[in-house]
Amino acid sequence: MDYNILIGGAAGQGVETLSSVFEKVLQRNGFKVFSIRDYMSRVRGGHNFVQIRFGDQELFSHADELDGIIALNEETVDLHIGRLKADGFVICDKQVAHADDRVMALPLMEVARRVGNARVSGSAALGAALALLGISATEVEAVYSKIFRPDIARQNAEAVLEGSKLVQPRYNLSLPGDNLSLPKNSLSLPKEGENILINGNQAIALGALAAGCKFYSAYPMTPSTSIMNYLASKMMDAEIVVEQAEDEIAAINMAIGASYAGARAMTGTSGGGFSLMVEGLGLAGMLEVPLVIAEVQRPGPVTGFPTRTEQGDLKFVISASQGEFPRMVIAPRNAEDAFYQTVRAFNLADKYQIPVILLSDQFLADSTVTIKPFDFDGIRHERYITHTVEDKPYKRYKITPTGVSPRVIPGKIPGVTVLVDSDEHDEYGHITESADVRQQMVDKRLRKLEYLKQELQEPWFLGDDDFDVLILAWGSTWGPLAEAVSMLNSGQRTRYAALVFGDVWPLPTKVLVEKAKKAKKIINVEQNATGQLASLVAEVAGIFCDFSVLKYDGRPMSPRYIFEKVREKE
Amino acid sequence: MSNTNYVILETAWCPGCGNFNILEALKNALEILGKKPHEVLIVGGIGQAAKTPQYINTNGFCGLHGRALPAAVGAKMVNKDLTVIVHTGDGDSYGEGGNHFIHNIRRNVDITHFVHDNQIYGLTKGQASPTTDLGHVTEVQVAGNINPPLNPVLLAIALGAGFVARAFSGDKEHLTSIMVEAIKHKGYSLVDILQPCVSFNKVNTFQWYSKRVYKLDESYDPTDKLKAMEKAMEWGDRIPIGIIYREEKPTYCDKIEFLREGPALIDRPVDIQKIKGYLNDFI
Asked: Which is the CATH superfamily of the domain at A2-180?
């Protein structure tokens, strides 16, 4: 079972609220959800939509074909009816004139007026959709009461009820089991077997909290801002400083200051803000201060396509800032991966005293997905902090076999002071002009990269070992690709498999080399125009892709898109 | 006064540089306040003044040009037990770091900002800084500086800084006493320290400053904001030094309960079970 509903309207019409209520109701009815958000860079007007796909099996991606449209304005019908299945439906107000017989023009505004709040017509539409789909609306009021004050929640719930009376059930989608009877105590944790509904940015934010992050400084930038929003909502309870900086340069330097002083610290931005942070990235590398940075990509250069998706920053991020120093770049592949990789990023940053960048994108950031609750019990905070010092005076940059020097937190050992310097420095942190010391320090810093390589996680493998064609991808492309590989392998002679990289810098090559040897053809699938992963793979492993499937229109690739583009080249 | 606790190696400053006196005054001030080296963090940006952390035995952070303030407030927010002092120059503080100067006055984190203001760029060899006087001829401003100087003292008062002072490197004792007061002040405190650059500023010399500066006496009331702004605008033949403006106001940490109460943030364990409870937001 797999259905796909689009909710659309102008900015300010409540598309986002309605969609998140619909998602939560689906979730509470036991469905698995995957939804994407398509919004414009404006506060009012324009056209925004959310596509909510749901079913009884785990979903990894969005789909193109629609089973239903909830249209809060006429434009939504015009723009999307071309993707509606022959037996699909459109729910809209009766003022919307449309000749297509799939359009159900209902007195939604009248219902809203009757309920006494003109703004609840969307909830009437939701009620009609739930009734049509045969999905219980029992959970609606509970969900509304989490976001609205009681009287507004009640009006919305009433509109849902009234809306449901406007249509006859056409589908019967309720799932077996007793999901509905589960009491949803607002203080309880997810129960055994119960899932969570979360997006990529929320997963990163929760991962940061789980990792013990105590300091987050950032400047708002779409699509990264919701990381800061979630952390800010927990600021007082979790005792984490969340500071809105005056610019991205301040954001990264504040985080470096906080990390130097001993807190786990993080900053987040998108490509434009990251461009401003680049010198700070080098500072973290030179000072050997641990730092986690979330770079949530959107199409560039510069302002680009503010609310849309791309994987265009890979080669920039792995080489940003002048000079040579170790860093790690991890591209989370889905919300679950985003959570665990964020925790891992903090541990690796501390262990190697380096900046670690989480390279996400708008598609992952804003896609909501049903997944298992995260395992908090397995989380370890590995700080690698020294409480005793052998050398007097203390050598912050002591030359060691691994390149990692014992780290003391300033102020924590009486008589011991910690000196760090952006100038080339000696073991004590003092400025040096010595050629020998310079060479020793470059070697020391780069040695950390060699040890870091032992920690790399190989890419995820999709498909079976008897493949003909190997697809290479990275980050959030995993979701659509996972479904595309199944589609490609159903009933075809050519067998496909894929490697999806999470660790992208340093690039793990062991499995890549193994699989590439067996491949008759190699294809890279990326959400960018120049095939940046393919170029990196060629540089690092000497492996060349035969052709590319690329998309750079700002809209995420669907499984069908990948399927068709790969087939074209067969 | 002995300040052996803080003594460290030789400097890269020119003989006769005002930085020597500022460094001595700083060491004296820390001694007077009874601060131990490991309890103090000195943050610099880039420039000759910003090398201060190199020449004193305290915790030191030599960061990026113009970015000393963000790093300093980040450190203070997570460890309120550290005494955090920023040492930078006029170029670093008011030029490259101008945006941070403005917004950290608004934040009012409990740090102290000592600006070595020699009205010139020293490290890059003599270009105009934001505080260079009109008409000052340099290798870049060949026809004389045409951009009027920024008045950091007036700007800081206008932005609501709770402690704003001007001092002169040539009067070490007076400078020390102002440094002591500035470090003791709860919240952001600015001391703009007039200082000759013997190599690159042939206009604002030791003699130039010596002839002009005068100390504010006890008849001056530093709590009157309008008077203070008037005093801040005094520049030319007579330049006042001393505490120009002071006002007690809640600091950044005072305004956030979990920072105000209890131990420093870095000394608190993470309650993982509490974080686990946030899963409830996603059902």
From this structure: Pyruvate-ferredoxin oxidoreductase, PFOR, domain III (3.40.920.10)
